[in-house]
Design a protein that fits this description.
This is AB hydrolase-1 domain-containing protein. One of its GO terms (molecular function) is catalytic activity. The protein is α/β, with parallel strands linked by helices and about 300 residues long. Helix content is about 40%, strand content about 15%. It starts with 12 loop residues before the first strand and ends in an 8-residue tail after the last helix.
Amino acid sequence: MSTPRFLTLPGTVRSRRLATGRGRFAVLESTPPAAGPRPGTAVLVPGFTGSKEDFIALGEPLAGRGFHTVAVDQRGQYETEGPDDPAAYTRDALVEDVLAIADVVAPGEPIHLVGHSYGGLVCRSVALRAPERLASLTLMSTGPAAICPPEIERLLLLEDVLPVLTRQEVWEAMQAVELEAGLLPPADPAIAAFLRTRWLGTVPTGLLAMAEQLRSEPDLVADLAAVVAAGLPALVVSGVEDYAWPIPWQAEMAARLGVPHVVIPDTHHSPNVEAPDATATTLADFWTNAAVYPDRV
């Protein structure tokens, strides 16, 4: 789980509901100053138990480089509503959501797509489905296939308790486990309250669907490599270590894709939170150099 360092919206960032053909999505949108050229729009997709706030610190530095960014709560996450229906959270459904968001925030233009953790699996599926809709793809702190075995065990435990306990009871149990492991809650009470509110606001059916996908994801790197070879600019970004997908897995994925692997110093699973300026610079440099390919079919 990513823990934002602050919640006060920077000057370029606003919170709003985005109306699309697939419903309304809660987003944090950062718009650069009116003057000057805008090199593109980026859509930022969070991971399992995450939210748009995982990217709150990226909006302003990316706006400073001229980029329009839209960080989203996926269907059923935090402030985006979702039904109690597993069909709403299939990978195909979440891909359609991202494409619908792209239609609204960058009509007629390809987007830079960034997926963090589980969001990276969703964004990979978007690239496989509709590569012509993308100006680039960034996979951040995500891997080639299913999450690592210790995390699979944690997901199976969560899948066991979510149907029989309330979200509050599950939250209290998770907090107890973290305390036992020596992981203290955030010192800022506002951040601690936000984490609880976000958890309670996320639809359990969506969590169950995402958990199942995380532990059963097939290796689709070869399929994505074919799309990259056909012209899709792509990048792998990670911290120096990662509990979900070990860094050697991520490095090997980048090598198989034939794309750069950028390691953000002094970060772990969430470079977007832990070193936002360095992460924003990495993204903006990559996007600036990424080619847009109008002739893709």
